[in-house]
Design goal:
Blueprint: H1 2-19, H2 22-60, H3 65-80, H4 91-115, H5 119-123, H6 125-160, H7 164-171, H8 181-187
Helix pairs in contact: 2-3, 2-4, 2-6, 3-4
Length: about 200
């Protein structure tokens, strides 16, 4: 009899948990983490391109020291932020990450604008290849961010809707931060790439 009651209790509990959105939270939480991982991978790809880009520009435009230092400093700031899963639950940490990436985007835009003043640099095959890779990476960042935003939207709707909001409170599924409209302007615009054709 006790064994039957424990099986019945376990069955009832699993029905209640699945009906209250617990399994949906598991799926949406994993989707958000996967989308975030892709965002981080693309930002890292961009950061990896920066040293080669700076060194190539330095060879032709060494007196643009201030611009080159700004890019190097922005890259250092962007890569110094520890990107852990906890960032997804901490709006302040998420905002710091956004700001650092936005500053790197702006510094790269200035660097590419300065390169327009150097025809020999624009003609350099390595520089053109790096520009092309950077442009592709910026596009990948935009796509990855859009996927992340969509995943967070689906997760947050689940976390705020009744009755699943009760499950969210009970099991500690807070609303997740997303990229904000103000930062969209600074972060999502890919640097202008002009091959001088």
């Amino acid at each position: 009899m006790k064994k039957w009651l424990s099986w019945m209790t376990l069955g009832l509990l699993s029905i209640l948990l699945s009906g209250c959105g617990y399994n949906q939270f598991q799926a949406r939480d994993e989707a958000v983490k996967a989308a975030w991982g892709e965002v981080v991978n693309q930002y890292q790809r961009r950061a990896d391109l920066v040293p080669n880009l700076v060194n190539t520009v330095k060879g032709y435009a060494s007196h643009e020291r201030e611009t080159l230092e700004a890019v190097t400093k922005a890259r250092a700031a962007a890569t110094s932020i520890q990107v852990t899963p906890e960032v997804l639950n901490d709006p302040q940490a998420f905002q710091r990450f956004q700001q650092a990436q936005g500053q790197l985007t702006q510094a790269l835009s200035r660097l590419l604008a300065v390169s327009e003043n150097y025809p020999q640099l624009k003609a350099d095959g390595l520089f053109r290849d790096l520009q092309s890779q950077l442009e592709g990476t910026e596009n990948r960042i935009t796509v990855a961010r859009q996927r992340y935003i969509k995943s967070v939207e689906e997760y947050n709707v689940l976390a705020r809707s009744f009755p699943t909001n009760l499950t969210a409170m009970m099991f500690g599924y807070p609303v997740r931060p997303s990229f904000t409209v103000d930062n969209e302007k600074a972060i999502s615009n890919a640097p202008a790439v002009n091959f001088g054709k």
